[in-house]
Design a protein that fits this description.
2 copies of one chain form a homodimer.
Chain A (H helix, E strand, L loop, with lengths): L4 H9 L1 H12 L11 H18 L3 E5 L6 E6 L8 E7 L19 E3 L2 E3 L7 H15 L8 E7 L9 H7 L1 H4 L3 E4 L3 E2 L6 E6 L1 E10 L5 E2 H4 L6 H9 L23 H8 L5 H8 L12 H6 L3 E10 L8 E2 L2 E10 L5 H15 L5 E10 L2 E2 L5 H14 L4 E5 L5 H9 L3 E3 L3 E2 L10 E3 H18 L2
Parallel strand pairs in A: 3-6, 3-7, 7-18, 8-19, 9-17
Antiparallel strand pairs in A: 1-2, 2-6, 4-5, 5-20, 9-16, 10-14, 10-15, 11-13, 12-14
Chain lengths: 458, 458
């Protein structure tokens, strides 16, 4: 009989209860980017700490940072000589409003067709909660886990984890561990478990273009001053080459080229054109020539427009000639690109292509390093074994297109190997309306997390 | 002693009172484009009708249309054989909020340095009010005006005067006149009175670009689907040629070329580069090569971006890959361009340049014909004489860059010559924040309007 058996049975028996508990957390609109939700952020953190104490952790507390607090809990009953696993997740979520196209209240979870619909259900409350429930399953049955466990759930992942580096640096002793697990990523399909070995980094910027000192009448001034919205569009149109590669000089200089072995590995799990169309509703795929869809989505850097704003955008017609125009843009980066360097390159390029008839400014909003994890490390093999037990089949390795800046932080500050054990699905709609999380994934995730604690302790 | 002398003296004596009365009208936020201001629209109309009755018009009433009502008043005491002057203005205004950059409440008029600051002060409440005060100055002194006067003040000019054509068609007998006067335009400087002989038309459109069926995570999908905000920028960047002329095929086909005589006339009143920079704050002028600033601003068609919207535009960083992007664009047109035809050309061009990776749609929001008025007509000469008496110097002829679609309507439906007697200043900031109206202009305008009624009756 395996060490994990009793815990696994407990988790199966309490599945419905676990889901209800997750709902309570999902109901708290912990939107980190919006100052109006400051109290909700605190509420979510306090709830998590109380839940950790309730299920049997030695200690769980809400710790202040320069921004939103982190929740830290630990169970160290396995003893000083046992392995220690540090688990990272985040309780903050992206903004969400019915007007964005939600079918139900984003902060009132609803199960439909086997999926839990709510903001943060997949990214990342549901995934973080899996580990609390795995630990509960040990502590409420055998009374102890096979390894020491430290849980660090932060509140600023969606806004760049600005204060986390400082927190880690100030708490290196407290956070000391043998391995770090992050569950904040997705797999393409529930039938094929996968482990992410690389993440993209991020450089998020705002471009501001200014013309006149105030909005003008388009009749009185149209034709003699350069419209900043037009100028912004003209600038943005110069970011890509005809083959959809990025035209910013020096942009690819630091990119680690894909090896043939990696390309072969990624090909095993390529994105199918028909699947992409079905999931997203786009007429056809787009992207950099010479690369597969999976490569474009995870192993190649990008430059996206995240937002555009200028002039009059309400109902009806206002014949204004705007004084300014703004774009939010972000570059997804791959190893070994440096976010700060990319910002400088974009900034210099925009300055170079801005016509003398307007002025422009590029501001860096936040950034995160790209990351690659060694797939041959023993900790990674423990994860492979855990997935195999949780799913019944071997996981495959893949890259993730998204960014988890904290991965680089953990490696650098704690000198610890970082495993990405994602329990999301690519089609969960993270960051968009109708974000959802598979109930089956939630259950298998808990089984896998339970097994991982055993495998990590071997 | 001229017929107008007593009226002119009355106007001088009551100048302060007239200004206070105008303030009452300016305090009503009659924003026609916003359904929330429907009651304010009605309030402004009722106030104007009451004011017309108070100053001695035979009759003044608020008449329904398919949208916001019109105010109609008349004094026909000059008799059946006398000349009848129809005066047009509008009581609706553009939207205005402190957040747009106003220095004081846009709906609480304030006099600073000889200017009245308020939304609608120049465009068009102040200008329309001038004619009511001119008429009052006759009726409250000699008891009669030199000509019959009909006043038509509409409430939908800022949203395309959609219901006015129907109203004019249904009231051709009531509106029958010998000449129509419109005061809804500006002159470059108060020291050089000018009469506008041409107006630009308008084709106002929305472009919608769609990619995925809902917003996506830019990490998960960045690089494999065409970002609609990027695609929109790419589309907009193709609207202009390198010489800043418009690249839409067929766009200039119907443009009546400027005659050498016209170009010489416009050159007398060209826009100075330094003046433009000073007024607007732009670093330098922009526009179509081969034309002077005045020509670009009034005698050449344009394509402006009035608004841009896509994705996340709030504070902070949201790594969204938007599902859609929208631009409001408008073309200022010159004789003999047709707004509907221009819409079709833009629509077809956008369809042609939209890449197969996204879909697009172009909607026509509203439109207005361009207009040219004969500068040699006797009615125009009456206006010239009136300005000369009001100012002490001869006015010059010029073109206006803005649009007053109703000019074409009056010509077509009533078969009446239309005079543009504008009392605004180009620098009044119509449609922008801190719109203002010169107190001196308000006074000279009333003097000129009084003289015009005498000149028109000769």
């Amino acid at each position: 009989m395996a060490v994990a058996d009793q815990a696994r049975e407990y988790a199966r028996q309490h599945a419905a209860e676990f889901q209800e508990q997750l709902y309570t957390l999902l109901r708290i609109p912990s939107v980190s980017t919006d100052p109006q939700h400051k109290q909700d952020m605190l509420r979510a953190a306090e709830w998590l700490a109380a839940e950790m104490r309730r299920v049997g952790l030695d200690k769980a507390e809400v710790l202040p940072t320069g921004g939103h607090p982190v929740v830290y809990g630990e169970w160290l009953g396995a003893g000083e000589n046992a392995t220690t696993v540090l688990i990272y997740g985040h309780y903050d979520v992206q903004p969400a409003e019915m007007a964005d196209g939600w079918s139900s209240d984003p902060f009132e979870p609803e199960e439909r067709d086997g999926f839990i619909y709510a903001r943060g259900s997949s990214d990342d409350k549901g995934q973080a909660f899996i580990h609390i429930k795995a630990l509960e399953s040990y502590l409420q049955t055998t009374g102890k886990a096979p390894v020491n466990v430290k849980l660090l759930i932060e509140g600023e992942e969606e806004i760049g984890s600005e204060n986390l580096t400082n927190f880690i640096q100030a708490n290196t002793e407290r956070l000391k561990a043998d391995v770090c697990v992050i569950s904040d990523s997705g797999m393409p399909a529930i039938d094929q478990p996968s482990i992410v070995y690389a993440l993209r980094g991020l450089s998020y910027m705002e471009i501001h273009v200014r013309g006149s000192k105030q909005d003008l009448h388009s009749g009185g001034y149209g034709g003699i001053v350069h419209n900043p919205a037009l100028a912004l569009a003209q600038i943005i149109s110069k970011f890509h080459n005809p083959d959809n590669s990025i035209a910013v000089p020096g942009f690819y200089d630091d990119v680690l080229p894909l090896s043939d072995e990696e390309r072969a590995e990624l090909l095993k799990n390529d994105i199918r054109e028909t699947t992409l169309r079905e999931i997203t509703g786009v007429t056809q795929s787009w992207g950099e020539e010479g690369y597969t869809l999976r490569e474009r989505q995870s192993a190649r850097p990008t430059l996206e427009v995240n937002g555009l704003y200028s002039g009059f955008t309400g109902e009806g017609a206002k014949t204004v000639l705007p004084a300014k125009a703004m774009a939010k843009i972000s570059c997804r980066l791959v190893a070994n690109q440096k976010p700060e360097r990319i910002y400088e390159l974009v900034r210099d390029y925009v300055a170079q292509i801005t016509p003398p008839t307007v002025t422009s400014e590029v501001r860096l909003l936040n950034q995160g390093d790209p990351a690659i994890v060694d797939i041959h490390a023993p900790e990674m093999q423990a994860a492979v074994a855990a997935y195999e037990r949780g799913w019944g089949i071997k996981p495959i390795f893949m890259r993730e297109g998204g960014s988890i800046p904290v991965v680089a932080d953990f490696r650098r500050e704690l000198g610890v190997p970082v495993l990405l054990m994602g329990f999301g699905l690519s089609a969960d709609g993270a960051h968009g309306p109708d974000e959802h999380f598979s109930v089956e994934m939630f259950r298998r995730g808990i089984q896998t997390a339970i097994c991982f604690l055993e495998e990590a302790g071997r």
